[in-house]
Specification:
The complex is a heterodimer of chains A (113) and B (114).
Chain A: E1 4-5, E2 10-14, E3 19-21, E4 24-25, E5 31-38, E6 45-50, E7 56-58, E8 64-68, E9 73-78, E10 87-95, E11 101-103, E12 107-112
Parallel strand pairs in A: 2-12
Antiparallel strand pairs in A: 1-4, 3-9, 5-6, 5-10, 7-8, 8-9, 10-11, 10-12
Chain B: E1 5-7, E2 10-13, E3 19-24, E4 31-38, E5 42-50, E6 65-69, E7 75-79, E8 88-95, E9 104-105, E10 109-113
Parallel strand pairs in B: 2-10
Antiparallel strand pairs in B: 1-3, 3-7, 4-5, 4-8, 6-7, 8-9, 8-10
The chains are: A mainly beta (113), B mainly beta (114).
Chain lengths: 113, 114
């Protein structure tokens, strides 16, 4: 069964610092990859996704993620975080041919002004 | 509707009682999912419905949990004889068949079993 690991459970950064959140998955076949974000008091929403093509994908609010197939990774990055990026971030993987999406345990990001 | 609607938003129940949680997906979304979000556990898949196909129930943690989807739209998740470990936020999501745009999540039902 697919599993998704997010190694950082809680990250604290100052504004303007760079961000990289790790995500690794276990299944080696065709996958679709997602990052979701949950802002305080709000529901989960899609940040970005990878289906095929360029492994560097850009999402909303300046976020990007790079799919490295050889490393089973899909790390999320942002060059300069803002206080408004304070949220919980979830990596998710969908195995090709299946509809179920497996989520990681989430990373809480706290940005200090 | 404009989004995925879940009710109730909060539910407190006594141990041993049955509860029903409701999800109203986005109109036209054929796929509907239930997940459970517990503190520090991430999102745990429970069940998946796609159109008229048999649901994928592989994530239901015990036979106390069941779900149905009537008319390909509204879904109800039922937990019988609730236990304290059932306390969590139950999330519903829907998507078009292709999944290309990801899930649209509801705001969840926070269930507390006392």
């Amino acid at each position: 069964a697919q599993s998704v690991s997010q190694h950082n459970h809680h990250v604290i950064l100052s504004e303007a610092a760079s961000l990289e959140l790790g995500c690794n998955y276990s299944y080696g076949g065709t996958v679709n990859l997602f990052w979701y974000v949950q802002y305080p008091g709000q529901h989960l929403q899609l940040l970005l996704k990878y289906f095929s093509g360029d492994p560097l994908v850009k999402g909303i609010k300046g976020f990007e993620a790079e799919f490295i197939k050889s490393k089973f990774s899909f790390n999320l990055r942002k060059p300069s975080v803002q206080w408004s990026d304070t949220a919980e971030y979830f990596c998710a993987v969908k195995d090709g041919g299946y509809q179920k999406v497996t989520f990681g345990t989430g990373t809480k990001l706290q940005v200090i002004p | 509707g404009a989004g995925v609607s879940q009710s109730p938003s909060n539910k407190v129940t006594e141990k041993g009682k049955d509860v029903e949680l409701r999800c109203d997906p986005i109109s036209g979304h054929t796929a509907l999912y239930w997940y459970r979000q517990s503190l520090g556990q991430g999102l745990e898949f429970l069940i998946y419905f796609q159109g008229n196909s048999a649901p994928d129930k592989s994530g239901l943690p015990s036979d106390r949990f069941s779900a149905e989807r009537t008319g390909g739209s509204v879904s109800t998740l039922t937990i019988q004889r609730t236990q304290q470990e059932d306390s969590a936020v139950y999330l519903c999501a829907s998507s078009p068949p292709t999944h290309y745009y990801g899930y649209t999540f509801g705001s969840g039902t926070r269930l507390t079993v006392v």
